Amino acid sequence: MANKANISANSSSCAALLVLAISFIGCFAEERDIYLVLIEGEPLAFHGSDDKRRFDLNSDAYKGQAKRLMDSHDRILQSTLEIGSYNKLYSFKYTVNGFAVHLTPTQAKKLENAPQVKLVERDRRAKLMTSYTPQFLGLPQGVWTQRGGDKNAGEGIVIGFVDTGINPSHPSFANYNPFEPNISHFSGDCETGPRFPLSSCNGKIVSARFFSAGAQAVATLNTSVDFLSPFDAVGHGSHVASTAAGNAGVPVVVDGFFYGLASGMAPCARIAVYKAMYPTVGTLADVIAAIDQATMDGVDILTLSIGPDEPPRDTITMLGIFDVLMLFARRAGVFVVQAAGNQGPAPSTVVSYSPWAVAAAACTTDRIYPGSLLLGNGLKLGGVGLSGPTCGRPLFLSKLVLARDVILRVNGTFPRTPQYIEECQYPEAFEPSLAQGSVVICTFSDGFYNQTSTLTAVINTAITLGFMGFILIANSHYGDFVAEPIPFAVPGILIPKVSTSEIILQYYEQQTHRDERGVAIKFNAQAGIGEGRVASFEGRAPIVSRFSSRGPDFTDLSRNPTDVLKPDVTAPGHQIWAAWSPVSALDPMLTGCNFALLSGTSMATPHIAGIAALIKQHNPSWTPTMIASAISSTATKYDNYGQLIMAEGFEITSTYNSTHFDFGSGLVSATRALDPGLVLSVEFEDYISFLCSLADTDPVSIKAATGIWCNHSLSHPANLNLPSVTVSAVAKSLILQRSLKNVGNKTETYLTSVVHPNGTTVSLYPPWFTIAPQGTQDLAIQFNVTQAIGDFSFGEIVLTGSLNHTVRIPLSVKPVSIF
Q1: How far apart are CA 242 and CA 59, in angstroms?
Q2: Catalytic annotation on 398?
Q3: Would residue 187 show up in a list of annotated catalytic residues for this protein?
Q4: What is the value of pTM for the model shown?
Q5: 377-407+418-523: CATH number
């Protein structure tokens, strides 16, 4: 019995130890992540200064204060958490005071309660928002001429790019100017590493840094593509940088075909590179560290064609650490332009929320690349694809076969899935003798719909088996698909419309003989793919691109609208030729290419950045908000037909009359923005007052995010002096005000007029005014509700000057009650 008792006791002890072990393992198995932390105390940029970057970065005073901030970060961590249980990734010390740390959620909770800690936010990760446009925007005949031609446009301005890095050997970034750039206000550095020697910083590229602590903390990086240097293995960063500031007149050659000459918007501006995105992963910690460094270095313009994966969860959108950092970059004198996002055309999909950053929407130009397909019956059909013609001759006809009719009929051991039998993903599925020398019809089916099949695989199959060409047709089960022109290494064409695909299949079946089992035994159909690489300049433009994210702006995850117009302005972002990286780590189809034709608000953003650089060069004393005002108030809402800009809808071919929530103020006009007549200016303190006036906003949260108490608030959030007026709810009546400054060199008289939003009448006072150079004028705007609509309606204020200046202020209001 004693032995049994001992056995029982031992069993109980073992069970208890097992429970403790499981608890112990569970504790340490808690998933770690990156957390961004803000703490009390002024950052270096504003320590004892009046919002100006006055620090000599090499001075003992600066270095001493920087060390004190970093030491304070370490003390907070050491006094709160066990040493060795966390990994501090960065100290943010210039624009904001804080750090990024890799730890567990439990540890993050402890940090939240630590003294001096104001805000703890989980890293939301970051993503990419993924030529002819200078001519489309009128730069060669307009702004470039005024600035002494393309060899001087943007000189002395430094544009910073937080992105995937840069391809330093690309001709768009060669230093064509032998003289030292006049950028004494800027102090960067050239970090070296794989594929990025010191000579990469050549005068055109004046600084290059990389930030990887966040990426290395959350993922195992692939050394073959995740280069720990400023080198761009993706291509996105090079594309963005060359669109804004690439050298003028660079030949675009892909697969031996000449597509024209590419130029950046400000071809003489200098480039500062801040690599924070990697093929494997992108983190907000790296992005924020890059923004902080760019601001400290002294960039004039900051280009963010990247952004968080989602809105912040525990605070309003504008108080997320990413947006707070942009606020303080703006305070330090940096013009910040941000991609609006690629989640359109649904409403409230913008990922740029704050009034201190300019959000760029994307639109088309009037350049298209029409592809063509000729059938054996003489019918010519349109399609998409940047490829040469079949057999190198225009509309040369070859045998036409359907993929499922030329797969292996015996000894075929492959799965009978769409990827094998109709999507042309696997060469081993085909009977080579039937496929070789034929134009093969591949079908958009399950694999493409679920994004597991690729055009790269189709092309590889075509090359392996010797297709004369391929056609990827729409499938009636999945409907029309979106097709973009992509350079194909073999003749190919995309047919994205079901109606066109049915015409092709009908002809094919008429010309194909089948046996009693339905097996194709004789192929009489013929087809030829035409030249698809020659541009055509026709049709309506601009049109807001389908993918471009829409407003209204919102304050929280519930998408409650706020009184700020987003997007701010529209720029070309559809089918943009620009520099690329031959590594092309995320797009094998573009491997080896030095240029790529891409679409996205990522592509629209650098257009605005480059134009802002031209404005800054022409008006060096202007603040970022003055530049933003000039861009917005001079934009046009009309297309090349003189009609209101249209926007693409959910259906492939559908368009609708756009609103300010599609295009913001309209299509940017560089020439008019250079001389806007009047501007509206906002100071840092005004942004704080705006935040404090938002409904249901906790002053403690504002203090935690910005370090400033709500000592003053606006009478209404819409009273922030923006070059637009957005009111998410107007009951009965509302009086707002705007303050205008004459930045011209002559006295000018302005007449006011208004296009009334539906459901309202708008009165302006004074109805006209005369304003001296550098003078200011207040304008009262009174809304009276005539009908409760319950949805936003749109109008505008137009100020017409006697010296030919025209200032437009968009109106977006929701009349909710007449009582």
Answers
A1: 34
A2: no
A3: no
A4: 0.91
A5: 3.50.30
